[in-house]
What we know:
Elements: H1 3-39, H2 53-77, H3 82-112, H4 124-155, H5 164-190
Helix pairs in contact: 1-4, 1-5, 2-3, 2-5, 3-4, 4-5
Amino acid sequence: MSYNDLRLKKEKAKKMMLLFALLSITMTFGGLTSAYVVSKGRPDWLVDFVLPKSFVYSTFVIVLSSITIQLSKYFLNKEKSKNRSLIFLSTTFILGIIFLVLQFNGFNNLIDLGYYFAGAQSNVTTSFIYVLAFVHLLHLIAGLVVVSVLFYKTYFDKYSDSILGFSLGVIFWHFLDLLWVYLFIFLYFIG
């Protein structure tokens, strides 16, 4: 087997591993949102619940971060401009942190409104919202680790031969962004 054949096999294996991870995450959130829909028939379900504005703002921030990470890939791949790529990666990371802050602000708004995750003052509706948003936050923290690795490897010219790892990181970030947009639309219109 030639070196090129071996490299292609490794690339295909890495793409498949990412695909399986994304399918697993999709199934998790599919199950959670299905349980949410089924639970809407409960008599203790909140009818006129409105998501805090912080969740709206965080949606705009996460969509913007998808644009910045794509620009980072463009500058690394097409323009061969490491510095511009690093600037957009840094911007993506900062936007990810802003997203986290806005999410925690949204949780604080829920608490201020008297909606708790568990306990005597909790409600099944808000418990679902906490779980959906928190599980997404855990994945987003993993995404921030990925962006940090992309930054490190770009800075030290680790993508000079192949940008497959960079591309897979970008796909993972876009997936997390789309996942939040799905959750936001789901909670805003279905909730």
